[in-house]
Write a structure and sequence with these properties.
Shape: elongated
Number of helices: 13
Helix content: 40-55%
Largest sheet: 2 strands, antiparallel
Order of helices and strands: HEHHEHEHHEHHHHHHEEH
């Protein structure tokens, strides 16, 4: 019997068994230590990052949200640079379960490992929600006043965050970031009117993020393609949609008003729309006075050519669609209110027709 070969086999067997046992011990150690690591990571996320409204943002995560969607949401908010890298790191660190639903206060200075830890930690209880509804056509000031009336926070705090907060959405790229180029509110037109489930306690940044996220969902790839076809920016489309929202109450007239706006812009006519003046005056009435039309403002389309300096309200989906799809089978340049009760208008091709209709309906 070759004893040397026998002992080599024995040593090989025990060596392999030792290596397997070592690997098992490492796996078990990681498995048992990881919850402690998650909790510690969550604590580090708050201890090692800057605090305050310029650094923090509320992040609402629904039950069973796919990981790829979570990564994209974090990227859209500017919390991570690359969703794919984020998912690879998540896999490499063994974070293979769904993140836990809840409401999180995340920080723009968090590392990806800190984000992983925070989103996996257990929360003490289910977050409370309340329902809010923002009507189409409201402007930022009206939205802010609404939240103040509901006891969420002051209107001025909401406006301050809307004007100065960090919101990383690509569709905001055309909005001036300094001085706002004469705009009253930086995010005017982009706080999408809808019904929302808002966590309690709510923060201005969290609510604004929800509304901007919904705008991004509505202004989808199809709308973006149409915007490119028109050779216009998203901001110009939102600007036109806001005018349509405020000038029409009859659904069938949206595309007609859109046609008038587009055609006037094409031929170099001033828009001369009362809704843009009413926005500056902060009034809502069917007819303005002649003296109202003389107000000095970059929103006054009676005195300034082209679109107003920014949107005048929050347009809904229908108004956005109308802005992107004006009627092409008409050549109207004018319209005047003919029925204050229903909001119906009379449309005209020429100034003479318009003046005659205007005189008739004002007399009526």
């Amino acid at each position: 019997m070759n004893w040397s070969k026998f002992f080599n086999v024995i040593l090989w067997f025990f060596g392999g068994a030792f290596n397997i046992a070592l690997v098992v011990l490492v796996i078990l150690g990681v498995y048992h230590i990881s919850p402690l690591g998650e909790a510690q990571g969550a604590q580090w996320a708050y201890d090692l990052t800057s605090v305050g409204p310029d650094y923090e943002i509320e992040f609402v995560l629904e039950e069973d949200t796919p990981v790829a969607e979570v990564a994209q949401m974090l990227h859209d908010l500017g919390l991570i640079n690359n969703p794919n890298v984020f998912m690879v790191e998540r896999f490499m660190t063994g974070s293979v379960d769904y993140y836990r639903a809840g409401t999180y206060m995340l920080n723009f200075n968090m590392s990806t490992s800190q984000l992983h830890s925070v989103l996996r930690r257990r929360q003490s209880g289910q977050a409370a929600f309340t329902v809010v509804t923002i009507p189409e056509g409201w402007n930022v000031r009206q939205i802010a006043n609404y939240f103040e009336s509901r006891g969420f926070f002051s209107a001025e705090e909401f406006i301050r965050i809307a004007n100065t907060g960090h919101f990383s959405f690509d569709f905001l790229r055309d909005i001036p970031t300094h001085g706002m180029d004469g705009r009253l509110y930086r995010l005017e037109g982009y706080l999408f009117p809808d019904t929302y489930h808002v966590t309690i306690p709510a923060t201005p940044g969290g609510i604004i993020t929800q509304m901007l996220t919904q705008f991004g969902n509505v202004f989808d790839d199809e709308m973006r393609a149409r915007e490119d076809d028109l050779d216009m920016t998203i901001d110009e489309i939102v600007n036109i949609a806001a005018i349509i929202e405020m000038e029409t109450r009859v659904a069938a007239e949206r595309a007609l008003v859109s046609q008038v706006v587009h055609r006037r812009l094409d031929v170099g006519m001033r828009l001369e729309l009362c809704s843009t003046v009413a926005y500056v005056l902060d009034v809502r009435r069917d007819r303005l006075l002649y003296v109202d039309l003389q107000i000095q403002s970059p929103f006054n389309t009676y005195r300034n050519s082209g679109l107003p300096v920014g949107p005048i309200a929050s347009p809904g989906r229908a108004a956005l669609n109308a802005a992107l799809n004006p009627r092409t089978d008409t050549t109207y340049l004018f319209f005047v209110l003919r029925d204050p009760a229903t909001g119906a208008h009379h449309f005209s091709h020429t100034l003479g027709e318009h003046n005659a209709a205007n005189a008739r309906y004002r007399q009526d």
